[in-house]
What does this fold into?
Amino acid sequence: MSGFGAHSGVEAQERRAPTRRSLLWAFSSMAMAYAVPASATTQVDRPKKRVISLNWALSETLYAMGITPIGAAEIAGYERMVGYPSTPAGIIDLGFQNNPNLELLSTLDPDLILIQSWQAAGRPALERFAPVESFALYNRGKGDPLEASREAVNRLAELCGNPAAGSSLLSRTDQSFADCAKRLLTTDQRPILLVQALSPTNLVVFTSGSLFDSAMHHIGLVNAWSKPPTLLWGSTQIGVDALAAYPQARIVWIASPDGAASEDLFGSDLWRQLPQAASGAVLKLPLIWGFGALPTAERFARLITAELTGATG
It folds into this structure.
């Protein structure tokens, strides 16, 4: 086994959560679905090439297109943190995204290995086994990760010899976004603070440059947090009291892998004193992985739309 890089790599409540340290590390270093979407109905076929995916965002994109790689990284972690689309049966687990089992990889005789740009340090080692294709979905909070994810769909489909699968996924996703936007036209149009707990007193707020921010714009929602990101991949760490500066905004809360952090926070005097908490302008979403690709963006759009269209606060 050989190391190769410096980053590591839900449907909601029944999934077993990783530790609080896992969430803190993810944000600092990289960073009940309500309906079964069309993207989950595609028949799963083996790709024309023997593909290895060493990145969760690329894995979820392949699965949503109905393309099954022969191997993928951190399958158990993917199921806990991402969980949608679920991992098809028969895929070989190659270990960590940043530290794959190269001996096992060598036995699989791959035609193609997929990574994200943050895994570039390991590319020379991987190229001993097969050509490596790298994808840049995030750019340190700059650019539009949703558009980059759309481009990745077409590129992955071409690389796997099934361009029609990419076109189909994009079409279904566009229809899902359009449906969400239509439903949201009749809802309260106040801006949204999208947050997730790091600890009982500290939060992450998602900013421009995040996948969630881009998805919100695609369905007609406004992000109340207009300041640029300070963390990787479009987020900023804040104290709970910072939310009080936006009394007209609705808080949308994404569940944390460490559920205790959220429960401790909701029970605190600091939280109860927020104007949004006092007025009931708070909605909760299940755990959604903040660093995904197009399938994650589409799932987020459906979930937040379902909550907002049912909200009365």
User: Anything to note?
Assistant: The chain has twelve helices and ten strands.
